[in-house]
Amino acid sequence: MHKLIIIGAGPAGMTAGVYAARKGLAPLVISEDIGGQANWTKNVENYMGFTDIGGSELMDRFKEHMDAQRLTYEARRVKAIRRGENGVGFVIQCDDGREYQTRALIIATGKRPRMLHVPGEAEFRGKGVSYCATCDAPLFRNADTAVIGGGNSGAQAAYDLLQLGADVHLITNENITADRALVEKISAHPKLKIYEKHQVRRIDGGAMVEGITIADTSGTGGTGGADSTGGVGGPDATAATEIRLPVAGVFVEIGLEPNSQILGDISQLNDDREIRVDCQCRTGIDGLFAAGDVTDVYGKQIIIAASEGAKAALAASEYLLYKA
Ligand SMILES: Cc1cc2nc3c(=O)[nH]c(=O)nc-3n(C[C@H](O)[C@H](O)[C@H](O)COP(=O)(O)OP(=O)(O)OC[C@H]3O[C@@H](n4cnc5c(N)ncnc54)[C@H](O)[C@@H]3O)c2cc1C
């Protein structure tokens, strides 16, 4: 049985790993990737010690730090977690069937992009449907594109695509809510068309995305809630006229949701499905800690996630020393 397993190798998990290694706990880090969300941002200007650094470059530095502590890392996706026999420790079950046992566990699984849940979305993921404009916009230089989401992420994605010469249909089920300064930068652009109060119905194509169908919900008193198709838009949207836009790229920018589902009913979540933690990253379950964006901690930032990872490792170390 391991003393400590950390799930997730974003800023929180990697920092927890370094702190735990320095406490002699020889932690095992299990993660689908290294770097997490920070890899998706081009420039980080608010991580102390670096006035401006690429997100993935900063994560490379974190990885070097992990390697310097000789941390054991396994690239796997965790499917579920359950309590160990007689309530001792935890059993971690991976997608490939592999299981691990540990006395203490830190969950640092962060967040993932929220999906639209419309027909064609899952099918064309990676074939024209993207959840990361920072990563994928350069693939759509001068192309016809759609961006879904009227917040800052959507407006920023539209801006990036316009800079690359793309035609952009910016679609939101409500009104544009992005910061005024950002909206002013894009709204007069001749290659931008904004569709407020429009619901995405489906994405279609052959080998790759070829179009998106949307429906105008403005005249139907739509409230922006999910409808029966699971898409975004008002509940009366089914009565609205559909428009098909021929596009090669669809950028879904409608927010993020916590990767807390692996916990099942082991631990308490808040209304946003974030893991509730106290100021020592304790979840209320003996030996179970959580850190970073997957928790209800205030502020979803790299520096905060890293600090929370450090706290979780220190708290786990104390738990293993005195209570396990
Ligand atoms: C586009 C964008 C730009 C941003 N820009 C900035 C910025 O400029 N400055 C800033 O401070 N913050 C920024 N942030 C926020 C910052 O990236 C996050 O707050 C931070 O990455 C959170 O770290 P984390 O370790 O908690 O989670 P994450 O970074 O989400 O890492 C989670 C890790 O867990 C792994 N994982 C998840 N589920 C599983 C599973 N089931 N099994 C195995 N592994 C799993 C993931 O693969 C990943 O490695 C940005 C975020 C985004 C999306």
Q: Do you know the CATH architecture of the largest domain?
A: 3-Layer(bba) Sandwich
CATH H-level homologous superfamily name of the largest domain = FAD/NAD(P)-binding domain
Shape: elongated
CATH topology of the largest domain: FAD/NAD(P)-binding domain
- Give the CATH level 1 class of the largest domain: Alpha Beta
Please tally the β strands and state the result: 19
Please give the share of residues in helix.
10-25%
Mean pLDDT: 92
**What is the radius of gyration?**
22 Å
N-to-C series of helices and strands = EHEEEHEEEEEEHEHEHEEEEEEEH
Tally the helices: 6
**Main beta-sheet strand count, sense and barrel state:** 7 strands, mixed
Present as ligands are:
flavin-adenine dinucleotide
What proportion strand? 25-35%
